[in-house]
Automatic annotation (TrEMBL):
Protein name in the entry: DUF1508 domain-containing protein
Highest taxon above the source species: Archaea
Pfam families the record matches: DUF1508 (PF07411)
Lineage, highest ranks first: Archaea, Methanobacteriati, Methanobacteriota, Stenosarchaea group, Halobacteria
DUF1508 domain residues: 12-59
Matches recorded under InterPro entries: DUF1508 (IPR010879), YegP-like_sf (IPR036913)
SUPFAM superfamilies (alphabetical): YegP-like
């Protein structure tokens, strides 16, 4: 059975911290475009996304 979507925080090969949003089916649906110097920085990035995403507009070309 599939679980809830989850934000994962991980250290990349370049020793920078990143986050990704994983859907309940296991697909990565969003990620941090840039690495963070610390794990706490990556977590702050997640909090920011969670706070502003409900109000984000959709742009299509």
């Amino acid at each position: 059975m599939a679980g809830q979507p989850v934000f994962e925080v991980y250290e990349d090969r370049g020793e920078e911290w990143r986050w990704r949003l994983v859907a309940s089916n296991g697909n990565i649906v969003a990620d941090s475009a840039e690495g963070y110097a610390s794990k706490q920085g990556a977590k702050r990035g997640i909090r920011c996304v969670k706070r502003i995403a409900p109000d984000a507009d959709v742009e299509a070309e």
